[in-house]
Amino acid sequence: MGFSLGCAIDAAIRDAVDTLNTADGWYPAMQANGGIRDGAWVAEATDLVDLSKWPAGTRLILRKERPHPGAQLRFTDADGHRVTGFLTDTPNGVIAGQLAGLELRHRQHAAWRTASAKPRPPG
After folding, report:
1. What is the pTM of this model?
2. Which of 22, 58, 102, 123 lies 20 to 30 Å from 89 when distance is taken between CA atoms?
3. DSSP secondary structure string, 41-64?
4. Are 85 and 62 in contact (CB under 8 A)?
5. How many helices, marked H, and strands, marked E, lie in the chain?
């Protein structure tokens, strides 16, 4: 059994984003059809934050993208981009497309889970 779950963007992760921005450590994100997702990038920040409280092999994958028109930036966003992250125990090389493929799988699964929820009656 494996895991892939979203994580909060804290000060340590914001520092990792700054490091990745300085080192040009971002790679283009993928669309579901395998094409490049315009305005979105992914990076691995596993070695830039303390994950010692997580099981061995846990990885931190970050995604940044331009916010939708009219969206307001949050204090956790960096360099004009919305930043999200997730933790996973999926080893490197298991998913086609490496980081971009892994991020796509996480994003698609989250959408699938949300879409499968039963609608709630209005309150």
Report:
1. 0.75
2. 22
3. EEEE-GGGS--TTSPTT-EEEEEE
4. yes
5. 2, 5
